[in-house]
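Please predict the structure of the following assembly.
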Amino acid sequence: MKQYKYQLDENQMPTQWYNILADMKSPPPPYRHPATLEIMTPDDLAPVFPAALIEQEVSSERWIDIPEEVQDVLRMWRPAPLYRAHRWEKALDTPAKIYYKWEGVSPAGSHKPNTAIAQAYYAKQEGLEGFATETGAGQWGSALSLANQLFGLKTKVFMVAISYQQKPYRRIMMETWGGEVVPSPSSETHAGRAILEQDPDSPGSLGIAISEALEYAMTHDGYKYSLGSVVNFVLMHQTVIGLEAIKQMEMAGDYPDIVIGCAGGGSNAAGLIYPFMKDRLTGEKPDLRAIFVESTACPSMTRGAYAYDWGDTAKTGPVAKMHTVGHAFIPAPVHAGGLRYHGIAPTISALLESEDGEARAYHQLEVFEAAETFTNSEGIIVAPETLHAVRAAYDEALRCKETGESQVILFNASGHGHFDLSAYDAYRRESLRDYRLEEERLAEALSSLPQIKE
Amino acid sequence: MKQYKYQLDENQMPTQWYNILADMKSPPPPYRHPATLEIMTPDDLAPVFPAALIEQEVSSERWIDIPEEVQDVLRMWRPAPLYRAHRWEKALDTPAKIYYKWEGVSPAGSHKPNTAIAQAYYAKQEGLEGFATETGAGQWGSALSLANQLFGLKTKVFMVAISYQQKPYRRIMMETWGGEVVPSPSSETHAGRAILEQDPDSPGSLGIAISEALEYAMTHDGYKYSLGSVVNFVLMHQTVIGLEAIKQMEMAGDYPDIVIGCAGGGSNAAGLIYPFMKDRLTGEKPDLRAIFVESTACPSMTRGAYAYDWGDTAKTGPVAKMHTVGHAFIPAPVHAGGLRYHGIAPTISALLESEDGEARAYHQLEVFEAAETFTNSEGIIVAPETLHAVRAAYDEALRCKETGESQVILFNASGHGHFDLSAYDAYRRESLRDYRLEEERLAEALSSLPQIKE
């Protein structure tokens, strides 16, 4: 009898997060101050993030305890199942064994609550009243609203105006969990008002929304700012994904040759990959391949510079060394909104530089081509972001078919696509299009990088 | 450490369905022919349903084997988890222990695929090409599209026109799984054309859609008709829910005092309740309370007649003895579209008559009132139909608070509400309203019942 799902009991959930900084030979250099470009100290970050999170950000401890209260909330849906894609393997006629970790079972529908819960806990411990944050299509905003609701905190979400208007369901989800959602640019901040004065009908952007959230957090007592990707502590909170997957792969009697995740800021990919990457970095599994998959519409890893850049368009957040297409770059409106971030997590960048990880980019038409075979076989409808990982697994499985290798492929199915069905519709109706990124546009975006002497 | 979820391994999934007819002292009388009103034979049903399903419909065997191929597909998401609602209990400050079975984990998001998979399997065995069916908001149509896709069958769905226009997401979901969806009334059937001639802009109704699906099935070689609720075989396919729950309640060390399900046609309620009802009917648990919850907008169980009635508005389907508000009744447009069926499963009716089950009806405002406490505590956003069961659990928990009893309450969380968020939005914006059903309107609807001498 074939087994489809590998489930862990609640008492098998990880009790510590894995911090990859402990095992990296070349960890990323420190953040720089957004205005002075000087090296930032933890104190510089204190007005922005809860103290416990800043401590985690700079920690080089290999294992960091997950507070029991955080475990208690995570156990509402975790451990998440790991699937063996028997039907998809058969449809692809591949000798490869394909596994995927299914993070769509969280109430918010993605991996995002894994860090939102932890952040809300530390905020509550610090006595904060609430968090301000930004959200594009609403995945992160809904995860944080859920988390804050469970810890009795308030949530102020600046949602990119065009998404606020076009995607009411995620907005309703945030409000259902107590989030207060305003379209950005808003009249509630200096940054927002400045934009509205120039363009009262501005559709907004993630860059503007970040500026508004940061300003709101710093000008409201009891509020700090919450971030859903990129920084070390967020990626570390996501390692519960990979730590569970290690145990589940053991149940299945396999170890992956290839681990795959889609990467916008990089948190879900790192969450699955880093606990396996540990085995590569420590020499136990030197041949493990780790593939980070991005969108060709925002190719920071495959075509960007490896350089210092601001994390946000408005240049108010920390400056990090990372692969970037430039903080001023505005990506084409691909359906995978979560992959439209101009940079990538500094730790992922460092792993790409040391050639411990590989990067790959896909156009949206090719990811939906793979989606068709995946959905028809596995039933599950995943998010457009996740489909980038699906496409990479598909390509590797077809490569195995050619070479006859029975490799083990594991990817992160980071979220469901229930609110992204219009993308599936557009693909089937042949109205979905690819976007080519011209060299000149990329070069122009890269010209805005800060000049920093290391 | 509190345990939230009780998970079974795949090899613990039930291998047989439970047929309650074997244990009922007064099973429902046989169906009558829609035109002659004479007692129907299995042969009369042969043009409509696959032969194996007709056999199951009239079987009085207590246990019926689940084919291995059906088990194999169900194991893609089953066994479904059973939750203990620790946080909700705390929020309600009740001594009651509340459990719920979570059926929202299926790819289609509800319990509906449990029977769709079985029906598709038998259709494939019989050599059929496809199934025709009707769908209101799309829950059933998407479950059947998924099932047919996995077995290589075609799906023709007649979707109530107003839903087709207003709820594109479920339509896209059906199409993503290969379903061919047409708004009903359509020009593809005699029944549809007749309506369109009178009213080219007809919004459609479930009654019209059923007529179209039946006609399509009977006039297309290789097609039969698939039904998602009401009849015995459908309810039996759903008993995997309760059979799993029995094992999970054992893991939790509890047995329910009260089992609850929301009931439109009655399939999810029966699916959870019948395996427990067996213990009541056989005298093992004579005090078990079973509560079937309906909408006050369509109060077949609480205000309807117990009488023979047609299963569909157009009087083309079998006539069954059941609680009904009359086949001509058109319910108010409550958000719980799945509870807008004029009748109820004949076996549920018989259990209500023998006082083995209780019926209860709620207005939609009171179910959303309970929703707020449930969602805030448990995180999960359930469907408006499911919220009727939530409200009943809430009332029982508050009764326990008053009496100080530590009763064990179990309800079926039959599906997620991701495509019903507009209802949550309407509630929060105070634009949701109740609908009163006047005595005169009910009396008029009941006047259309057939005259049958038993």
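The two ends of chain A are 59 Å apart (CA to CA). Chain A has 19 helices and 15 strands.
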